[in-house]
């Protein structure tokens, strides 16, 4: 990732940022922490209308995006109200991680790890290499296959550890970036992100044109997006 790339115009993103309006201001929102029970929640206040709750798949951290004037008390209530959702989502993410690690890494995660510890895993050089190898062995073939359907292919694909998006694409340059976390997701969801980003080569925004094109080539894309989003957010 070069400096100029990281400063390129805001790229279009796969889920979950599909839920973020394209008009989100570029100003950097302030992130603070808020202790709720035994959890430290990352809170970002920005110009949005609703509160969003997400579980970061890399470490299980709870993050909340909230409208600027939301009080800490309201955020605490919001998090507490979704306690059971947080528990079931973490459990589901843990199961997915375990199932897909067998495929991605050829071995099971240490069963003695608690879900919390599992999410706290860092990107070790070994894990990075395994995830990259897994995606590199599958994604180019997917792009080739879907390129025949869509008529356009990205000019380059890079794999990176990202914490807030599954993928992104800059239509002007044709560059696609995919989150290494995808290596631990089911193949149908990897394929959804790849196709989503490739459709951006035709349709930069998430408007009707984008939706029509997605539905034409992947009729169940909304279901796949829902599954992917269910791992990240609760609105
Ligand atoms: Zn998108």
TrEMBL record:
The answer to whether the entry has keyword Hydrolase is yes
Renumbered to this chain, the Polar residues biased-composition regions fall at: 1-10
Enumerate the InterPro entries for this protein. Answer: UTP_pyrophosphatase-like, YgjP-like_metallopeptidase
Positions of the YgjP-like metallopeptidase domain: 52-102, 132-230
Q: Identify the keywords attached in UniProt to this record, alphabetized.
A: Hydrolase
Keyword hit for Hydrolase: yes
What is the recorded name of this protein?
Answer: Metal-dependent hydrolase
The organism of origin for this protein: Pseudoscardovia radai
């Amino acid at each position: 990732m070069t400096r100029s790339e990281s400063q390129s115009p805001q790229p279009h993103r796969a889920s979950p940022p599909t839920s973020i309006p394209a008009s989100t201001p570029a100003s950097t929102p302030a992130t603070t922490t808020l202790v709720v029970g035994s959890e430290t929640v990352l809170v970002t206040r920005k110009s949005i209308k609703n509160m969003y709750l997400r579980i970061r798949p890399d470490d299980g951290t709870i993050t909340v995006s909230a409208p600027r004037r939301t009080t800490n008390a309201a955020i605490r209530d919001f998090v507490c109200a979704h306690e059971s959702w947080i528990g079931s989502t973490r459990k589901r993410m843990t199961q997915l991680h375990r199932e897909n690690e067998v495929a991605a890494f050829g071995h099971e995660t240490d069963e003695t790890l608690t879900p919390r510890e599992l999410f706290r895993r860092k990107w070790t050089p070994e894990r990075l290499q395994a995830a990259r190898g897994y995606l590199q062995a599958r994604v180019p073939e997917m792009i080739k296959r879907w390129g025949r359907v869509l008529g356009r292919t990205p000019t380059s694909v890079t794999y990176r550890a990202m914490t807030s998006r599954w993928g992104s694409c800059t239509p002007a340059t044709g560059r696609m970036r995919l989150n290494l976390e995808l290596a631990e997701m089911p193949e149908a969801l990897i394929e959804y992100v790849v196709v989503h980003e490739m459709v951006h080569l035709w349709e930069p925004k998430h408007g009707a044109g984008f939706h029509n094109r997605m539905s034409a080539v992947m009729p169940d894309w909304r279901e796949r997006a829902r599954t992917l989003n269910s791992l990240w957010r609760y609105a």
